[in-house]
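An example makes the point: we print one protein in full, the chain in one-letter code, the fold tokenised, without further comment:
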Amino acid sequence: MGVLNVTPDSFSDGGQFDEIDSAILHVDKMLKNGADIIDIGGESTKPGSEPVSDNEELKRIIPIIKAVKNEYKDILISVDTYKSSVAKKAIEAGADFVNDISGLTFDYEMVSLLAQSDIPVVIMHINGKPKTMQKKIFYSDLISDMKKFFIKQCDYAINSGIKESNIIIDPGIGFGKTFDHNFTLLKRLKEFGDLGFPILIGPSRKAFIGDVLNLPSNKRVEGTIATIVAGILNGANIIRVHDVKEIKRATIVTEKILKAR
């Protein structure tokens, strides 16, 4: 899953791809480098970020989704949003599934929209909201608390009409987690496998990598590769990344190791 942020303020690439021409060029590059899915987002959810209005988010993403889908008809597009009104318009514009950072907790109309649309959804774990999620981080037991969240939200989704086969879970690396928590999640990712859903991870270029390497976001590709390889070896099925070419190569080798006799 290649990241296309059409925002002015995303932590790693804000302002780079918010025009149609630059967005299409970036999508073309990611597809040529091996992306299978393009994840399009119109609101930064980095720690401390302010939410944007539905209208502003729609203004940013709908023209891009339409343009990308018109140019590349057969690719998969996920829309990175927690707002049902935005998701609805994005699906109408061509989005194939929804990547909800709130895990269906911020907008109670999202679940019925997804059930009616019969498309996949990523249920991500978040502790708090982006603006405040890194201020007071507490878990009785990190993995146990998160598994309880997933069981509750996945049951809620299924009972609301979302097909079990349409559910993907994401531990939400960096979303209400300490740096140590993020490393623990990657090491213990297999423990979420018994929930029975595909697992998506998105550690790409994040601050916990920069903290270890003392590097800015645009120089964290090697650290990101290490987290992705660990994630795949521990059960990740979908990886959300900025540096598609380098990480695709690492993924191919990692999968070869997994399949070795």
